[in-house]
Amino acid sequence: MRSLPLLLSLALGPPAVAQFDRPSPPGGPTGQGPIHMVFDYHVDPWDNDLSPAEKWSTYHAWIDNTEWVLDLTESYGVPLGFNASGPFLEMVSLDPAGGGGRGAALLRRIYAGGRQLGSHCHTERKEGPLDWPPYGFGADLAESRRTWQDAIDALHAAILTAFAGAPPEPLSVIADLKEYHVPTDDFRAHKLFREFDMRTRAGKGQGEFLNWYGHHVWWPHRPTPGDALVGDPTAFPTAVAGGRVIGLAPDENMGQDMTIPNAKRLFLQLYVNWRWADRSGREEAVWNWGFACKPNYADPSDASRPALEEFLAWLDLHFADAVEPTGSAVMTWSTHRDVVEAFEAWELRHPADAAFSHPATGVDWSQYPFLRPVAEELVAFSWAADLDLGGGVTAFGLERAGTDAVLCWRAEGASTVDVSGLLGPSVRAVDLESGSESDPDPGAVPVGTAALLVIED
To answer: I need a labelling partner for 173 at 20 to 30 A (CA). Which of 114, 342, 353, 366 fits?
Structure first.
């Protein structure tokens, strides 16, 4: 593996100048809507065997960590896609300070930034004050229903406490997101979504697509009961996809690599697809992705803290509020609620359209709705650095098992770039939109508006 002397490395931080200019979007219709990036911040239940004193201590420690997260996210205008479990929310209401307590103040602050206070549960139910024992993943429908009900009741009570009994919107609007672990049967889960009249769910059940193609489903849709990868306009909840905890490696993140190099590559992969759809006048879609964090992963010594700082800064520098030559805004920070509102508006313009559907039970490129060359070429790469190649070329350095590559494009026009100092005397170039390959002179690689991957040979 060659060293990359021109790269702006992780150690040096992001470049001083963003890769995109940021003029105000022009009026009138544009192509694709912006990529909705969701920061899913959810509060898991703690160990029910903790003593009451230990539970209160954990509660305040998690508030400390969440306040740190908010100090960071608010500086970038990033709302929290917040959802919390019953044990945490119960304490908001039990706090003797009531609406003047730290938990109540936290909920008001989160709501002010993102209009969302959602419900999260694993398998726990409430048996008494500070007592939330788990059923386990074998919970049947009745037990799962109780798990949902107890978590939602705790959420509603916490919201009423935070807003002195007069929340700014109906509880059904503020608390419309459900993340859950039971029931494990998808038909039963759909039944509960209808019973509780909740229209937003995280992208549960999409792990197979990630395994097949190396990325999440980028289009929100209404999943068919029993098959999260088949869209059904008549189904009830809308699935909003996203990755797991930022900064964590697969062995500690349920198999997903959300370390910074891979998270950046995943976003670049999404952006290249979105940009192609926007430039080529494809039919509009709602695009979304995201990542997660939890208060128990936001301690000062946790890997998620520096990862979150770096990822937000990188997205803000290069993509947030950027505008394409077409006039389309590239990315906007959203909550799950924002995504669903954008999707429901899209549905009104596209009645009876499933938005996304992949009925095959394995890799099937005929059903894959995104750019195949991007999926095949980028999947094993990781981001290595931001590049400054000059001449109006946007470029990022990538690395794969000792092989270096450069991902690059121009906003407009065409030129050549010299990558010989980065990639050596022999390279292979792949047009990621058409899939065509070439063996250009590394000292003068032609670059146009289509995303190009140049790989050392």
So the answer is: 353
Cα 32–Cα 38–Cα 39 angle in degrees, nearest 5: 155
CA distance 128 to 133: 10
Tell me the CATH number of domain 32-349, given options 3.30.450.20, 3.20.20.370, 3.40.1080.10, 3.90.105.20: 3.20.20.370
Residue among 156, 190, 180, 182 nearest 170 (CA): 156
Is the pLDDT score of 422 beyond 80?
yes
Residues 6 or more apart whose CB falls under 8 angstroms from that of 112 comprise: none
**CATH architecture of structural domain 373-456:** Sandwich (2.60)
Q: What pLDDT, on the 0 to 100 scale, is given for residue 204?
A: 75
Which two three-digit tokens encode residue 445? 């690689």
The token pair at 379 is 């999947």
Q: Exposure pattern of 410-419 as b/e (b: 16+ CB <10 Å)?
A: bbeeeeebeb
Task: With a cut of 70, say whether residue 259 has pLDDT above it.
Answer: yes
Owner of token pair 């095949």: 376
Residue 18 pLDDT > 60, yes or no? no
Angle at 191 between CA 186 and CA 192, to 5 degrees: 95
CB 135 within 8 A of CB 123: yes
Report the distance separating Cα 354 and Cα 352, nearest Å. Answer: 6
Task: Using a pLDDT cut of 90, give the percent of the chain over it.
Answer: 90
32-349 and 373-456 agree in CATH topology: no
The domains of the chain are located at 32-349, 373-456
Q: At residue 401, what is the residue type?
A: A
Q: What is the residue whose two structure tokens read 């088949």?
A: 230
Short-list 254, 221, 260, CA closest to 239 = 221
Provide the CB-side half-sphere exposure for 406 (13 A, CA).
32
* Whole-structure pTM value: 0.93
DSSP assignment, residue 79? P
Count Cβ atoms below 10 Å from residue 89 Cβ, excluding itself. 26
What is the per-residue pLDDT across 100-138, written as a single tens digit (0 to 9) for each? 999 999 999 999 999 999 999 999 999 999 999 999 999
